[in-house]
Design a protein that fits this description.
The protein has 301 residues and is an alpha/beta fold. Helices cover 45% and strands 10% of the residues.
């Protein structure tokens, strides 16, 4: 079952192009990369080193750069690495209560790019409202809302909250910056899926989950109003055939532009540059070679 499930996870993520390759999900540590348990990676003694590594490709002196930018870039990759297993499984009708202790981060080589999840002893949840497409047997819940809650409550209430608390205890950044990164990654992941998949049931599942996460009034695991509210705006470049959908704009800057060696200094989603500049950067992104960090799939068993 482990080998069959790993193969299904791999096949599902491969459909998502560069994003699927960049944020691969393993059930056992891949032998060719450094793998660090998420709680260990977020200890004060290790964070500064990992933050500096995150900007090493932009500067020869990462120790001298603004630690806020280093932390921000690191968390963009960390955040999607810990979230991708939940988003991917949920789209395929599977929910696991993955807490921070059950996730390890794959460093490829200096950025968090992918994860290893520990399913030992975990209950697998399924629902007739979204039949599982992976080879799993699970405890049924009646509705899709319940299935989402099983998956998303630990992701946001445990993984996100605890990760953000660790970073905020080490670096002086705004909590809204970190939640903006989480919202950005929701849209980045799901928009990529809906853009690359053909019309049909699988694409519809991703689209429905994106709608629930980005535009719902609440977020599972978080008390009160969703922390995603008013963090993203939208550019409309649909007159350009390359850009047929509304595209996100961050309202809270990621501060990566302060690292002198970053080229270009601003992201294509940055609210500090003009729509015309964002349009040009999106065009460059869409026409660039489809590259991703990938490794040979390790044998299991």
């Amino acid at each position: 079952m482990s080998a069959a499930l790993q193969a299904a996870i791999y096949e599902s993520h491969q459909k998502l192009g560069r994003l699927g390759a960049s944020y691969a999900v393993w059930l056992e540590p891949p032998p060719v990369w450094e793998v660090v348990p998420a709680p260990e990676l977020l200890t004060t003694s290790r964070m500064t080193n990992f933050f500096e590594r995150a900007i090493a490709d932009w500067t020869d002196n990462p120790k001298d750069e603004d630690i806020r930018a280093a932390a921000s870039r690191f968390m963009r990759r960390f955040n999607l690495s810990v979230a991708a297993p939940t988003y991917l499984a949920l789209a395929h009708g599977v929910a696991w209560e993955l807490t921070l202790e059950r996730i390890s981060i794959v460093m490829r080589p200096d950025l968090p790019l992918g994860s290893v999840i520990d399913l030992r002893g975990l209950t697998t949840y399924v629902s007739p409202e979204r039949p599982a497409t992976w080879p799993v047997e699970g405890t049924p819940v009646a509705t899709l809302d319940e299935l989402r809650d099983k998956a998303l409550r630990p992701l946001f209430g445990d993984v996100h909250v605890r990760s953000f608390e660790k970073v905020l205890g080490h670096v002086h950044v705004s909590p809204r910056l970190l939640w903006s990164t989480a919202a950005e990654n929701v849209d980045y992941y799901y928009d990529n899926a809906t853009a690359i998949l053909p019309e049909g049931e699988e694409r519809s599942r991703y689209a429905a989950d994106r709608e629930r996460l980005l535009f719902g009034e609440t977020l599972p695991g978080i008390e009160g109003e969703t922390p995603f509210k008013d963090l993203l705006g939208w550019d409309d470049f649909r007159s350009d055939p390359l850009l047929p959908r509304l595209l996100q704009v961050r309202k809270v800057c990621c501060v990566n532009y302060v690292v002198p060696g970053r080229k270009p200094p601003y992201c294509r989603t940055c609210g500090l540059i003009t729509p015309e500049q964002r349009h040009e950067q999106w065009r460059q992104y869409m026409t660039a070679p489809q590259t991703a960090t990938s490794v040979p799939w390790p044998p299991l068993g």
